[in-house]
C-alpha cells in the first residue's frame, strides 16, 4: 500500500527547494536554451534512477549507514560544486572584458554530464530517497519503492521544467550577453555557497 495523499505534497515540496541541480537547469536554459536544459535534466534523471534503484534494492540503507562512503561522496560533491562555481565566475569575468557578445559554447555532452555528476555525487540525494520513500509505503517492498521513485521523477520533471522556463525567460530578457554574464556569476556564487554548506554539514 502506498500513501499517495501524503507522498505527492512531500515530493513537490522537496523538489521545489532550490538545489544545485535545479540551479543548473535554470542556468543552462538561460545560456543555451530549453533543449539543452532538458537534456541536462535527463542526465539528472539517470543519476536519480541509480539512487532510487539502490534504495529499492535495499542498498540505500546500507550505504547511508556507511560513514566512510558518505564522507567520500560528500567531498566529491563539495569539490565538484566548487569547481562549477569557480569556473562559472571566471567565465563571467572573462566575458565581461569582451566588447562583443561571446559565442555560446553549446556542448550537449558537458551539460548532461554536469547534471549527472552533481546529482550522483550529492550524498543528500541518497539520504533523501532512503529516508523519504519508505515513509509512504506500508510494505517497503522493492516494487512499492520503485513506484514511489517513479512518481518522484514525474514531480521532479514538472518542477525542473518550471525552473527551465524561468531560466529561459531570464535568458531572453534585457541585453542578452549582460544577462548571461549575470546568470553565470550568480549561479557560480550559489554553487560555491552550496559547496561550503555541504562541507560544514555535520550530519554527513
UniProtKB/TrEMBL annotation:
Main localization (coarse): membrane
Source taxon at top rank: Bacteria
Compartment(s) where it occurs, according to its Swiss-Prot or TrEMBL record: Cell membrane
InterPro entries in the record: LeuE-type
Segments traversing the membrane: 6-24, 45-66, 72-90, 111-131, 151-171, 183-200
UniProt entry keywords in alphabetical sequence: Cell membrane, Membrane, Transmembrane, Transmembrane helix
UniProt topology in membrane: Multi-pass membrane protein
Protein's name in the database: LysE family translocator
Organism for this UniProt entry: Amycolatopsis rhabdoformis
